[in-house]
Each structure stands twice: as C-alpha cells, then as structure tokens.
Amino acid sequence: MGILSGYRVLDCSIAMAGPFAAQRLGDLGADVVKVEPVTGEWQRHVSAGGAKGNRVNVSFLSLNRNKRSIAVDLKSAEGKAVLLDLVKTADVFLQNYRPGVAKRLGVDYESLSKVNPKLVYVSMSGYGETGPYIDKPGQDLVLQGMSGAMLSAGRAGEAPTPAGQYLVDAVTAYTAFEGALAALLHRERTGEGQLVKVNMLDAITTLQMQELSIFTVAHKPQTRSAEPHAHVYIRAPYGAFATKDNPIIVAFPSLKKFGALIGEESFLTMEDEVDSWTRRDEIFAKTRQRLAAKTSAEWLKLFAENDIWAGPVYGYADLVKDPQILHNGTFVEYDHPTEGHVKTPGFPIQFSKTPSKVDRGAPLAGQHTREILKSAGYDDARIDALLKSGALAETKV
C-alpha cells in the first residue's frame, strides 16, 4: 500500500508539468484517474525525440504510469455530468488549462467545490491566472529565457545555452505535487478543501532563491565572463573543461592547492575570495590550458585523492550504468501490455513503510472508462448508452 492509498486524483492536465505532478501522486499510491478527451490527451499525439512507440509514445508513457484513463467529451452535457459524478468521490482535481478554459467548461474551483467542498483543486498555469501575460503560452524554453537563469552561465556576448532538460516543466510539476500534498495535510487537520494555484514563472523564479537574493539584497550584478564560466555567482574556476580525452567538471577549488596539483604557479599567490572573482577569466583560461595535458581519468584520480570537487561529464549512456545509480535503484523496469519492457526513472523519495511502486504503465485513451464508471455506480447499460452517444470513449488493450 502506497502512502497515498485511498486518495483519488482526477488528472485533467496535458503535456508535461501537470501529468508529471499527477504521476508523482500515483507513484505514492493514489488512484489517479486521467480524464482525457475521447481522441486522447495532446501528448499522445506529440512524440518527443521521434519516439513514437507502438500504441503509446514514449513521452506519454514516461508521464502517465500508475494512472487509469477515462475518455470523456467535457463539451457534452452527458460527459460533463460524468465528470461531476467522479468529482464527488475525488480528493484532488488537477488541471493546467489555459486561464479561463476551466470556467468555460464549468470545471473551475468555484463550480467543483460546490459538488465536493473537501476537494483539493490544483490549478496550474504558465504565468498566473490574472495579469498581463495570461494569454501567453506557458512553454518551457520561453520560461527559461524569462527566468534570468540563462544569463548566469556561459560567455559574455554569446547567446545563452538552455538547460539540457525540460527544467521549468519539471520544477513546476514538483511545485504542484508539493502543493497538493500540503493541501491534503491541511484537509486532514481541518476537513477543508481549497484551491491551490501554481504557475511556471513563479516556480522557476523562486527556484533561484540564492541567486536572486544575491542580486536583490547584495546588489551584485549578474555579469557573465569572456570565458564560459558556469555560474556568475560562484568563483573561478567553475565549469566544464576539456582534457586529453573527455571533459570533466571542476568546482571552485582552493587556488593555491589547485595550482600546485595542475602545475599553475600563478595560482599559488592568489587569494580565493579576491582573485577568483576579479581574475575569473584568467583563472578559467589557465585551468583550461593545464587540464588539456592529461586524460580525464588521470585528473579525476588526482583530484579525488586531494579533496578537489571534480567529476565526469556524463551522457545518458554513462548515467544509466553508473554504479551509484544502479545501487540506488534510480530506474524502474516493468512490462507494458503494448509497449513491451520499459526502463524509466523511478520515484526519488524512499519511504521505509510505504514504498512507491509501478502498479500499471501508462494507459491507452479510455482504457479504464468502463471500470472507473462501474466503480462510481454506473451500470453497463448506462455506460453503453454514453459510449454510443459519443460522450465517452473506450479503448481495448
């Protein structure tokens, strides 16, 4: 039994941030019912990396395990009535419609809280539900650019490099997951449901607690260097450096100690808290020149023996076979009825008494329509009539 066993989540979200948040709740044992259009959720039809799969593409597969699917036309009166019946027995309702859409569909917090006053309603948006940007699309890379974070690394005068993952979507998902858990805890204590609002712009902005405080409190300007320094608010050397074979990471060592190890005499007279800021480009360039003389393995061995923070630059092929990753059980493996054997990142929190697990892989659109409605008290004749009317859809495995 997962730690959230007994809770029901209605997941009306699309794309990444919402489904990822709902999947986290499912990983902890909640009964997550994915409410999607009769044609299937948007992410079913968009394959990141061109990984289309058999009947479920990899993008959808990765974000929708531990869920059941019901396919409903919410624009029809019959479909809307079905959803309201499900809301009566739900604990969490999660959606990331564009602002105003939930109200037009009649599934906004005010409407659903009348049906179920104890409902925890998580509403996710790109920029907030009011204000000048409510009509802007909340897309990950666009928000990365707005966040200011891109200009904390790289070379001055060059275009910034985006994060190598869907960073804003992932951070927003975790923020929504955290908000849902906190609101459920409040309900356990008081019996009250409530509206929980999360937006991508605030999520990625508040993630930069330390960096932005340095700017707003200490008034330190966000100034990039001529060299590709990894973060404007961390002293040199700090970044990825080429070696004789593979690149490695070096993270702000003591200059005197580091200089002795790499054979850079000029570092021996430098002060960490002065020169590593004022001579950042010089230090970076000299580090780059020195590290090109040996292999990555040679440098990493030397640095490990001398307590210098350093490490390899992995690709995914390296990551999945890393001994610590294998030891931690970071990835989970299971068999999916249409996609075969699946290996995918698991859940990062370990509970001693209520561990997370994969009970089911991502569903087909409407795979559980009949099962979900029968558990809500609908008989086969009523379900068949709704399917015939087009208000619902179901898919057989």
UniProtKB/TrEMBL annotation:
List residues traversing the bilayer: none
What keywords tag this UniProt record?
A: Transferase
InterPro entries named in the record:
CoA-transferase_III_domain (IPR050483), CoA-Trfase_fam_III (IPR003673), CoA-Trfase_III_dom3_sf (IPR044855), CoA-Trfase_III_dom_1_sf (IPR023606)
A Gene Ontology molecular function term for this protein is: CoA-transferase activity
Q: Name one Pfam family in it.
A: CoA_transf_3
Q: Does the keyword Nuclease apply?
A: no
Q: Reply yes or no: does the keyword NADP apply.
A: no
Instruction: Report what the protein is called.
Output: CoA transferase
Provenance organism: Hypericibacter adhaerens
